[in-house]
Sequence to fold (451 residues):
Amino acid sequence: MSGFDKVVNSYAEAMAGIEDNMTVIAGGFGLCGIPEGLIAEIKNKGTKGLTVVSNNCGVDGFGLGILLEDKQIKKMVSSYVGENALFEKQLLNGELEVELTPQGTLAEKMRAGGAGIPAFYTATGYGTLVGEGKEEREFNGRNYILEESITGDFAIVKAWKADRYGNCIYRHTAQNFNPMAATAGKITVVEVEEIVEPGELEPSQIQTPGIYVDRVILGTFEKRIEKTTTRD
Amino acid sequence: MALSREQIAQRVAKEFNDGDYVNLGIGIPTLAANYVPSDIDVMLQSENGLLGMGPYPTADEVDADMINAGKETVTTATGAAIFSSAESFAMIRGGHVDVTVLGAFEVDQEGNIASYMIPGKLVKGMGGAMDLVAGAENIIVTMTHANKHGESKLLSKCTLPLTGVNCITKIITDLAVLEISEGAFVLKETAPGVSIEEIQEKTAGKLIVPADVKEMTFS
Fold:
């Protein structure tokens, strides 16, 4: 039984084994559904030369943006990086490399990576800069490009609740890239708002089965909002 | 008179049918949600993983875990569904979204669109735009007909890096409604008070003016 208990009690244990020049896949969309404490632990450890695969790179001073402060990121694989002045500076200085990837292609690269599919054809990006240098093929009169999937040395994930076996559920749109990221890490670490006992989550409602998850840690979250819009 | 942003949005909303699943891009397309006719229901898709986007929350309802693709706080509409990014783009790429509306820097007579990158300026990324134009059957582009220097944005060939090729079918500008067919812009409607001559002058690509061009209506 205890062999399935994934819960760790410190961030040091949660991120044990992360080394310079590794690839880290991170869940989250903007600042929504990001593993805040795991990102902070990477900053504290000072791990450098990282390739980070995430839809965005946080903002100045929050989220993945804090890893730019000590130049820990070598390369970002993202669909949109426009919210971050330090990112812009390092990119223009040549201190940071970015591989812009269409959002759906990025999600599918993670999904396929975790599912053991090395590459897939998609129409997204055909005839654009994204398609340059990639294999092209026609199916039923439409043109597609071959995109390779992504796996990471680590995946860092934010879930709402997990049980001790690592079964996870997500809250609202904080789901986003997290379920795909969870499947694509050699070591997958999930930071959650609540840990429950096995059996407490309804099996049919589990969004990330525990088989993908190596470590679970109880976090505390600031949950900063990028754009608060109200109808008041 | 050229249309305001709100009037363009109002004209866009006339394209929606009862029961349509619709993805609206940032800017003028998002405004179209305000003009959906009261006698029809449309379901708004937001590519971060929400089908059935509701209005902005009240101050009390604001929830950091409930945002749209523009990273704004939103609510869910009755009957909404929330899912992962892979699922979201499966419905987009798989052609399940009925109408996609997005902005652009340029479009051309072959149906190509450039909307995410101006060389020499910082490239912020394409987000979901390349997937949206690759997947949708019915894509509407909203834009001003000409840039602030009066130069046409409806070209024979796009000059900026493309977001997608041969994918645009309809364009709603501040001057006109046009469709793209067989390598030409086909004028369908003119904005009230805008002459066909002005549209011809501000359309750099091949323009076909059929005999039955109508004046735009908004309701």
About this structure: Chain A touches chain B through 55 residues (CB under 8 Å). Residues 11-218 of chain A form a domain with the Glutaconate Coenzyme A-transferase fold (CATH 3.40.1080.10).
